[in-house]
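User: I'm preparing a small set of examples for a lab meeting where we compare how different chains pack in three dimensions. I only have the primary sequence for this one, and I'd like the structure in token form so I can line it up with the others. Please keep the answer compact; I'll paste it straight into my notes.
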Amino acid sequence: MKTMSRTLLAAGLALGLAFSAAQAQAPKPPSPAAIGYAKEILTMKNASAMYASAVPNIVQRTKDSILQNNLNYQKDLNEVSLVVAQQLAGKEKEIGEQMAKIYATDFTEQELKDLVTFYKSPLGQKLLAQEPKSIQNSMSYMNQWAQTFSEEVNGVFRAEMRKRGKEI
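Assistant: Understood. Below is the structure token output for the 168-residue chain.
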């Protein structure tokens, strides 16, 4: 009986310690104010443009996938896709809500408040206006660089293979 009591006591203590450790590691949920600042930042950055067409795109992909094995239902699937898209319109807002919670978890309330202040400043406004162009130009450069570098790598491969007497 004593052994069982000790075992139960030890198990309870271990469980209690594990629960305490889990609670200590769990992140504190963000405050409503932090979420509000995060939403304001995401609005200023026009983040919704990234996911605005998520519902219609997923509905279209799903319809196309179903259609591959059901070509005789094309007319019905086209009609149903309109109904489904209408029923699920607005679900993409869940993405924005979760993005705000992520920002509010990754940044402190004060940091988010400071970011809102920054984005409202002249430099912040310039960043908001210019950053998409800068990113697009950077991506264009990276694509051009990758193409040129790929050709260079191809040339080196061919030269090394020629040294081995193998023409590719």
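A couple of notes for your slides: The helical segments are 2-25, 32-44, 48-51, 54-68, 74-87, 93-106, 109-120, 122-163. Residues 122-168 form one domain.

User: Perfect, thanks.
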